From TrEMBL:
Keyword Transit peptide recorded: no
CDD domains the record matches: FHA
Domain FHA: 203-257
Pfam families in alphabetical order: FHA
Domain of life, source organism: Bacteria
Name used for this protein in its record: FHA domain-containing protein
InterPro entries registered for this protein in UniProt: FHA_dom, SMAD_FHA_dom_sf
Keywords: Phosphoprotein
């Protein structure tokens, strides 16, 4: 990972704990659990620290749960010839990674995808990891970071590929290729339409779901269901994770939500949360059905899989 790294500090902006490894950089939003940081530090000199192993030491639930983090993984020596300048990036929560290429810069954030948003990028000449509330800025000033410093605290970390400023004059934007990682353990699943979703926070479901004022800066997944007769309301239903269970709330929809629980069908009381067990279904009308699946459901051979 031949590079130059700079860090910026601003007492008025969110801070991060950055861990810099041989082939990766991780930023954990403050307050960063010390146990998580220690496990990341244990991987900094490990040449076999794959992205799966790195993500595996960042818990999404429990006492050390990490709400926001950004991760950049660089190819191991010999894994690629470097001509495509490839990286893999993962973001969760308020983390954002600004990707720089000869053709310009673009921002990569989680877009409400849970438990994280992951993608591969090529033609990368540099990047910056900070809060998504920061403006897109390819040339933020900062102090040089001694690459022997494996752990630093800053509001922004910028990485520049060595020699990138004078190389590559072609105008090629960073390319993005989506892919998936092994699913996190202990996360509840549900099916909406023909798609399986893992729920690691809150999802709003409807014909045209929209964020609400009370969502604030929380990461909320928006899931659209087709409703040709417009029976399903715009923002019809909320699903929220509670441990390994799913809690559903009808958001005062026009036509209501019918819950089938243990063979009994009854309408959800608008605004009143209802804990659902495995096998329960929610009928939003117009053929729009949500089904609660077992924790860590295996979608192999089934419909497409997404994260909410």
């Amino acid at each position: 990972m031949p590079s130059v790294i700079r860090a910026s500090d601003d007492a008025h902006k969110p801070s991060w704990v950055f861990v810099i490894g041989q082939s990766f950089i991780v930023g954990v939003g403050e307050p960063a659990p010390e146990g998580v940081v220690s496990r990341l530090l244990a991987l900094v000199d490990d040449p076999d620290a794959t992205i799966e192993r790195i993500v595996g030491v960042i818990p999404l639930a429990g006492e050390d749960a990490v709400e926001s983090f950004g991760l950049v993984s660089f190819p191991a020596p010999g894994e690629a010839d470097g001509s495509d300048r490839r990286i893999t990036a993962i973001v969760r929560g308020t983390a954002a990674i600004d990707i720089h290429s000869p053709g310009g810069s673009r921002r990569f954030d989680d877009r409400g995808i849970r438990p994280w948003h992951l993608a591969d990028f090529t033609a990368v000449t540099g990047l910056a990891l900070a809060s998504r509330h920061e403006p897109l800025d390819a040339h933020a000033p900062g102090r040089a970071v001694d690459l022997r410093s494996r752990r630093i605290r800053a509001t922004r970390l910028e990485w520049l590929r060595e020699g990138a400023e004078s190389a590559d004059t072609e105008q090629t934007d960073a390319a993005i290729v989506a892919r998936t990682l092994p699913r996190p353990v202990g996360v509840p699943w549900f099916k909406a339409g023909d798609v399986l979703y893992s729920l690691d926070g809150t999802a709003l479901i409807g014909r045209r779901p929209r964020r609400r004022a009370e969502d604030g800066d929380d990461v909320v997944a928006l899931i659209t269901l087709e409703s040709p007769a417009s029976t399903v309301s715009g923002t019809h239903l909320e699903l929220r994770r509670h441990g390994s269970r799913i809690v559903a709330t009808d958001l005062s929809s026009t036509n209501g939500t019918i819950a089938a629980i243990g063979g009994t069908r009854r309408p959800l009381v608008p605004g009143e949360p209802q804990t659902l067990g495995v096998g329960a279904t929610l009928d939003l009308g117009d053929g729009a059905i949500v089904e609660i699946l077992p924790v860590d459901a295996d979608p192999a051979g089934g419909p497409s899989e997404k994260k909410a």
